[in-house]
Amino acid sequence: MSLELEEISLQERFMEAVASEDKLQIMDFLNNQNISDVAELIYDNEDYETQIISHLSMHRAASVFKILELPVQKRIIKHLPAFTTAELLNELPADDRTSFLSELPSNAVRELVKTLNPEERKITLSLLGYPEGSVGRLMTPDYIYVYEHDTVEDVLNTIRKFAKNSETIDVIYVINQKGELLDDIRIRDFIMAPPEKTVTELMDGRFIALHAGDDQEVANEAFKMNNRVALPVVSKSNKLLGIVTIDDVLWVANEEFSEDIQKIGGTEALDEPYLDISLMKLFKKRVGWLIVLFLGEMLTATAMKYFEGEIQKFVVLVLFIPLIISSGGNTGSQASTLIIQAMAVGEITVANWWRVIRREFIQGVMLGTVLGLIGFIRVIVWAGISPGVYGAHEVRVAFTVGFALLGVVLWGTLSGSMLPILIKKLGGDPAVSSAPFVATLVDVTGLIIYFSVAYLFLQGILL
Amino acid sequence: MSLELEEISLQERFMEAVASEDKLQIMDFLNNQNISDVAELIYDNEDYETQIISHLSMHRAASVFKILELPVQKRIIKHLPAFTTAELLNELPADDRTSFLSELPSNAVRELVKTLNPEERKITLSLLGYPEGSVGRLMTPDYIYVYEHDTVEDVLNTIRKFAKNSETIDVIYVINQKGELLDDIRIRDFIMAPPEKTVTELMDGRFIALHAGDDQEVANEAFKMNNRVALPVVSKSNKLLGIVTIDDVLWVANEEFSEDIQKIGGTEALDEPYLDISLMKLFKKRVGWLIVLFLGEMLTATAMKYFEGEIQKFVVLVLFIPLIISSGGNTGSQASTLIIQAMAVGEITVANWWRVIRREFIQGVMLGTVLGLIGFIRVIVWAGISPGVYGAHEVRVAFTVGFALLGVVLWGTLSGSMLPILIKKLGGDPAVSSAPFVATLVDVTGLIIYFSVAYLFLQGILL
């Protein structure tokens, strides 16, 4: 059962089947593998990817297709015969179809939606109507519903009839004639109940429902807190629209966090595995932000030019420039990352900005005092060890460094923590207030703070 | 069904029930709420948290307890009477108990394990024996198993008998007399099969099993790829040890990613929501890394001191120090974050280091050329607009800035991408090679690169 061993022999057995050139043998081989193993074969044999999909039974082809990376999905759709594409799209569960289509350009979507049969087309267009990142986009209409007055036997018959086509049968939904959700009941309760009992007798009215317009983060939280494998999605008037299954939420959580981390690092979301993405694409995703940051950082040269007089007179100030601006940058990155993460998991909303600012003010003063003190002591001690190393005014230099650090660190925590909230408030993604972005912002202002403090402490000497 | 509305009235109804001082009424009220709502009440009423837990039926108390934040769990365990604590711990599912106990100091674990009944104690000690972060720690032994020769009717009877105590009945496991796993079969297949059919006839031998020693990341990936709500865990000899359910993996994924993001930002993992953690704790989690980075960054002052002669003679060099070191820092943070993320989701392993280094070398040259060119043009253009702004040697300065940028950016991408891999190789957590950490490393070396390039281009003038 070792994964390594299996992988090798799987590939070998695949090559054997391919070598036989016997269509039936290839189909038989592929249809007897786990879908994750077939996906593995597709990744390892790019030349055969379209053939592998077309040699699977349509149901299994759909199961494999939905777990592939987007670029591979696109290539396969491009190479499959139009008829097979239509069959495949019709077979895909509605939620996976929506998520695939929403990644394509709109003219491609239009063409592909045309190939769907009328019922699936209606479902797909309605799901695509929900905003990106909403629970509606994750919904599937393939669930089992029953009515209150049904008996347990009726329910088990319904399950037998519809189980093949529904995403999960772990939970059964009770609705009334108006289609309103009354309860969700686990299948285990039906299996354990005598057949003549009615659904009403099994109901406890304790159910958790999501709304189609809810953020997907809400679904994540609801699944974490409620020990369910599927949750119902209702309209504002409590009509049951569909269900969301926990595996889709796990996919979303993985993708969301990966994108957040990439953005925090100052890259656009890659959307492809690092080792698979082409060097040119990778370059394009990285260079954009770097240029923006570079242009911003150019202001440091302008700011320094402005203080050139002070620098000329007092070169010792230069020695501490990197130390001071990067301390501001580090505290700023730290604060912004903490806030981005807390916002990503829903611990902080824009409404909390005042609480955050108060907390970060205190943090900034505490952190700034610690770093300022260390900086102050550093200058005094060095000057004690090698007298004259910082010129004749080492105490003033020490005070300048210490207070500049306090100011820069405080400014770093405040701007680092407020920036993600501000971006969110303006409708953007807080994760773009990345660590490098905050660091750059704080670098420029940090220089101004430093030279202003220096001006204050060294006034008598400079003037 | 609006969440907002419900929350308000829930709290009000809770206060009403409390005001009645009628134990039965309080119990009745609490036992009729969703477990996530009870958790909400506990968070909103810290003074009552222990009472809320002790007014629930033991089964529901355990369901609520397991979704609470760790600090709240600790407080409740501290305040509950010893007898109730024992009952609660015995009632907790084995996987949740393990994850709670593994967060406590070892003497507390010893005391609490003593309160377990012999069977639960054996299970707990065995689960605690698996390494942290392994699949073994997430396992629960509460699953339903059947034998190959059982009939569908036997299986349904087994399900009726054991369903109450198992985490999920969506999947049933087939084992032989030696306890080896033969297959997993979804409950839907049993419900749809005629009662006299045997398990053997339903088996397809296609099952995915995890190993107890596997990293939890493997479980995450397996769930994403295999459309299952539970996966079996086997020993090296294929004995069925337990199962892992998808909801536990969702918890782990959420926590892991949050911790990774916090570490990338240069903070220790908070383990508590941002707004709940005390200011002092938050300060402690942040100040440690900041001091380390600050001490590292002090080397910039030392490096600058070393080049003081050059600086004195050529103050214009100073103007570009922040621009150059922060460009290195930004590309370094970007590279390290990309690699950390790719390692976190298993796209890159230590074995890929050579491929990564080749890719990053090319990226570094491309990014460095772009930024270097922009820097070069910046100096030439400025010097054209206001002649003399950079002294008499603006072309040499422009070349210095351009080539220093190329060197620093290349060094940033290479060290930023290799550091997480190196840390992983040494057995550490790659996420600690945080953006600020890489930025600091690149700052110091960036200065040395800059002044070395300057020395090369300005040699004739400096000497």
Secondary structure layout plus pairing:
2 copies of one chain form a homodimer.
Chain A: H1 3-20, H2 23-31, H3 35-44, H4 49-54, H5 58-66, H6 70-79, H7 82-91, H8 94-101, H9 106-114, H10 118-128, E1 145-147, H11 152-162, E2 171-175, E3 181-186, H12 187-192, H13 199-202, E4 210-211, H14 216-226, E5 230-234, E6 240-245, H15 246-264, H16 279-306, H17 308-313, H18 316-319, H19 321-344, H20 353-385, H21 394-425, H22 435-457, H23 459-462
Parallel strand pairs in A: 1-2, 4-5
Antiparallel strand pairs in A: 2-3, 5-6
Summed over residues and divided by their number, the pLDDT of chain A gives a mean of 85
User: What percent of the residues of chain A sit in helical stretches (DSSP H or I)?
Assistant: 55-70%
Give the strand content of chain A: 5-15%
Q: CATH superfamily of the largest domain in chain A, called what?
A: SLC41 divalent cation transporters, integral membrane domain
- Radius of gyration of chain A equals 30 Å
Question: How many strands, what sense, and barrel or not for the largest sheet of chain A?
Answer: 3 strands, mixed
* Physical arrangement of strands within the biggest beta sheet of chain A: 1-2-3
By CATH reckoning, the class of the largest domain in chain A would read Mainly Alpha
Helix count of chain A? 23
* Number of self-contained structural domains of chain A: 3
